Amino acid sequence: MQQRSFGEELRLLARRRYASLAAFSAVAGLSPGRISQIVKGTYPNLSYQTLETLLRAFPDIAEKEALYQAWIRDYAPSPIETELPTAGATDDEIWGFLECRNSLYELGKIGNVRDATGSLWHELAHQPSRQELAYHCGKIHVETSSHTERHRQAIHVSRELQNLATSAYEPAWVASALWQEAISTYPVDPDSPRYSRSAMSRLGRYLSDWQPRTDRERSLHRTLFQTYLRDRLIALEELYRHGVRNRSLLEYQLAALQSVLPEIEIGVDFKGTKEVEARALIALGRLDEASDALEAAAQPGDTYNSLKVAVTTARLHVADKDADGAFQILAQWVPIAETQSLYHYRSQLVSIEQSLLQAYQRLPLAERVERNASDIES
After folding, report:
1. Tell me, what's the pLDDT at 374?
2. Please, what's the b/e burial string for 212-221 (b: 16 or more CB within 10 A of its CB; e: otherwise)?
3. How far apart are CA 58 and CA 49, in angstroms?
4. For residue 74, what pLDDT is reported?
5. Is residue 142 a contact partner of residue 199, using CB atoms and an 8 Å limit?
6. Which of 239, 260, 270, 292 has the most neighbouring CB atoms within 10 Å?
7. Is 242 left (phi over 0), alpha (psi -120 to 50) or beta?
8. What pLDDT is stored for residue 78 in this prediction?
9. Distances from the Cα of 52 to the Cαs of 28, 36, 55, 321, 363, in angstroms?
């Protein structure tokens, strides 16, 4: 059977989901004329950035996969786009893969990216002429390992990254690797908040001692310091939820974060910072303020952000003794976390559900869905 072109695939999917191309263009945020050119195949050199915009308009993973594969056939028929780099790949092939990894995340292939970057890290780490490439592969491997609950692996590689950065005399790399170790420690075991606070303190000391020399280093230093304030608040909030209650310290760190919010930079992720602010406000019982922060944190089209907001919104419902509201969030987002292979967020959502079940003596989610279906059929 002949495969459909990218334009034909887009027309089919857009009409199936949105009934018309005009409705689809409004959701995608692209002009009807541009959409018309794309579906007719007269739009020249459709870029990966435009593809990402189109993919965000389709919530179903199968739709994203079909459109992505059609784009590969028509616009990116090179090995860089069609397969993951393996041992012996050129630097250009590896950089190309790293630059397009977000599309693989959107397609639920975060595990593939984790495994590929892990292999590349081990291959490149001992090649002095490829240290920068090795560093970036290792950094992404830590990131993807954390998101797929390989936390000890993430911690191990983040420490190896610190050694590489130190030997390369790259203080910016050291600071980033310290930050990655700190955020990878949260979910390791019940005592992880204490360990996380210790790792965060090491990062804080390094940032205090580091004297950046270039504009790039100064920018990164400012970004990491603001990130440090955010993530130190996460560590304290985790401790608070685990029963180590220091309200005054949590309030102090929350105020420190809020003081830099007006000047927070894109690199720190303003939306994500508002979600962290909401976590602390929930822990402190300031639920109305937490609700406002979560509203500001919402970022449609960003799966990672949406899952974080969903977890914290579920906790807000629990704190407000609204079990039904929390269960609605869980029913919506647990399957999405599973589909996207984002196990860390799924485990947080399931943990909330288990706590709710114990507190409110409700049936497990799967049984509730099954019983509801039986009731409807009868």
Report:
1. 46
2. beeeebeebb
3. 15
4. 76
5. no
6. 239
7. alpha
8. 41
9. 10, 17, 5, 39, 39
Contact predicate 149/343, CB 8 Å: yes
Direct distance between the N- and C-terminal alpha carbons of the chain, in angstroms, rounded to an integer: 43
DSSP code per residue over 329-371 = HHHHHHHHHHHTT-HHHHHHHHHHHHHHHHHH----HHHHHHH
Q: How far is CA 118 from CA 21, 122, 172, in A?
A: 41, 6, 21
Evaluated on CA atoms 253, 254, 257, 260, the torsion sign reads: negative
HSE of 107, CA atoms in CB hemisphere, 13 A: 17
Task: Tell me the two tokens of residue 160.
Answer: 């190896």
Q: Which residues of the chain have pLDDT under 50?
A: 77-82, 190, 266-267, 362-363, 368-378
How far is Cα 180 from Cα 367, in angstroms, rounded to an integer? 38
Model's pTM, two decimal places?
0.56
Structure tokens at 97: 């893969």
CA-CA distance, 319 to 255, in Å (whole number)? 21
> Which run of H or E residues covers position 255?
helix 247-260
Q: Is 29 exposed, middle or buried (0-12, 13-18, 19+ CB in 10 A)?
A: exposed
Identify the pLDDT of residue 59: 82
Cα distances (angstroms) measured from residue 69 to each of 57, 293, 376? 16, 38, 38
Determine whether 145 is exposed, middle or buried from the number of CB atoms within 10 Å of its CB (0-12, 13-18, 19+): buried
Q: How many CA atoms lie within 13 A of 298 on its CB side?
A: 8
| Residue 311: predicted pLDDT | 87
